């Protein structure tokens, strides 16, 4: 959270209070106008601060937390004084103006309320989120650094939540006590004013009970329900916002399910109520018939109405049986419909999940080429490419370039020029929309997937190491990697010197994400990891940025000696001077290419960039 706007708001508030005091002093006013004046001043402050924000920040609206803070700061004091006046605890009207202590208290309360408000509101949403992240880490999906952050977040939110729950409970208990006191006092005064015959009609015991137990019970009900209402409303609103943010489709399904369940349940409740009334009517009828007939048995006998009465009794019993049978059918049908609805919604939710499982990748599938020997010549032919997330924006435009086999080619140019996009296409992370990328004259997609990734290896700028030994990181993913292979790769990556200097050499632990190694050493290990696979093309995407210039040069030479094609993507032009071929890219197109000497003599963009970098 950026704290500067909050400090400015606090200073602004203090300044406006000072102005009010000065103005009252100058105008020789003894009061700021009671409660209406206080409210007017609060609203003025609110408007003023929003206007000031617009002046300094243009159309950009203040964030919700900052806005809440401003509202609290401006309206907390008038609201507090209004509640105090309404509860009869204090009459503000008689006081001239809130003192500096009250203003300071209002500011502190606003800060605390704003912070705790967010904690309380987000507790039920954030706790499950942090718990999920911590569980994710325990299942190995997160690194330790993330784990500590998530665990810290969980602890903080839980602590804040407990604190706020305690404060909220305490505040409501305090309000309850005040409410009871006030109502009892009013009731007692009212009782004392009643006529004497009122006391003759109402026993003192019952009046005393009204005064104590009933008032207590009423206060408890009102306060508890207010508490529950405020809490539930805010909680539902926030949960809805959070779930909408996570997935509006799933939220819609859940809301639809809830709505249908409510409709179904209320229909069923109506029906049950109706049936219950019918059963009660029937029971009453049965009782009436039985008691009427048995109570007047002499009349029944004398009229020979036994058969008639028995038929009547049977009729009511049959009616009762029908009602109960209908109830017996409706209950399981209702449960079935409810369960079907719930299962149906879950099936729909799963269908969103399964659609991902069934999704077929749009890229061209890999072919079966896996030649024994590979030269490592790479050609980009009229390649046009746009990222799937921005299909209308072509980041490469009919780009053509050649990377000679066994040579060092450097791609340079300003940020956003399209260098990394070329590398991504070369690794088949994306497919171009137009043109082709060829390896030894064959399109990349005609090679076997595993073969291609073994022969064309990428070392990224920030390589990830895994907890384990230096050796296991070099041999990562290889089944039959011998110590000899590791040592050879490390030597070519100029990493053997530092590895040999470690106490346990290749068995030295690198720590979580390689934290025990410096950035330069991490890059050396990552290059060794690439080299141990004996690739024919190595792409160093800013992969030597943390290395000393001499080491960078040595690594390049050792790689080239083996006849490997080396593609270096670099920002620092100094590091690519030695390259056999330099390609200068900008705006997704090749602007200039040649050796360092040729490009410097051309006095174009490369030369200007070089001179800009080394004036
Ligand atoms: N995943 C992506 N989705 C959409 N656009 C992207 C994506 N990655 C990069 N771009 C855009 O593609 C353009 C080329 O980016 P690219 O990373 O290839 O340039 P770059 O020369 O490698 O830059 P840098 O040196 O800063 O890495 C940029 O405008 C960038 O914003």
From TrEMBL:
Organism the protein comes from: Muraenolepis orangiensis
Transmembrane parts of this sequence: 7-26, 38-57, 69-90, 151-177, 236-256
Coiled-coil boundaries: none
Organism taxonomic ancestry: Eukaryota, Metazoa, Chordata, Craniata, Vertebrata
Localisation: Endomembrane system
Name this protein carries in UniProt: Transporter associated with antigen processing, subunit type t, teleost specific
GO MF assignments: ABC-type oligopeptide transporter activity; ATP binding; ATP hydrolysis activity
SUPFAM superfamilies: ABC transporter transmembrane region (SSF90123), P-loop containing nucleoside triphosphate hydrolases (SSF52540)
Any Gene Ontology CC annotation: membrane
Positions of the ABC transporter domain: 378-612
Pfam families attached to this UniProt entry: ABC_membrane, ABC_tran
InterPro entries linked: AAA+_ATPase (IPR003593), ABC1_TM_dom (IPR011527), ABC1_TM_sf (IPR036640), ABC_transporter-like_ATP-bd (IPR003439), P-loop_NTPase (IPR027417), Type_1_exporter (IPR039421)
Claim: ATP-binding is one of the keywords in the record: yes
Family: Belongs to the ABC transporter superfamily. ABCB family. MHC peptide exporter (TC 3.A.1.209) subfamily.
Chain ranges of the ABC transmembrane type-1 domain: 124-330
Keyword terms of this UniProt record: ATP-binding, Membrane, Nucleotide-binding, Peptide transport, Protein transport, Translocase, Transmembrane, Transmembrane helix, Transport
Membrane topology: Multi-pass membrane protein
